[in-house]
Amino acid sequence: MGGAPGLRHPLLVGAAGLYGGLWLNRHWLHWPLPALVTSHLADLLALPLMLGLALAAHRWLIDPRGTLPVAWLVGAWLGVSVWFEGLLPLWSARAVADPLDVLAYAAGTLGFHYWLNRPPGPLPRA
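^ Magnesium citrate secondary transporter, sequence as received from the core. Prediction below:
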């Protein structure tokens, strides 16, 4: 009741805010940002956001106190990396394969694993 607690985690909310700010800047504001920020920050934030939503769904549908298995995290990292850095550039002129993006996806996945993929705290007493 009251929504999925994991979706209110300060790190996940911060990642969503940063990602939203990058999107807003890219499409409307057009403020000059450092190349490292415009090239790799969204990739760093992408998997923690996707996995955060997956964790919330897992807790809502399967186990309210559960976490995502490491194999799922590795699978998500591999899937996103192969799709966006391997296959999509073959079909889209706008997509560019960048090995540093694969490292950014990995760093985001590791960050999710260490800071967000934790069982929730103790249940409140009635």
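The chain has one domain: 5-116.
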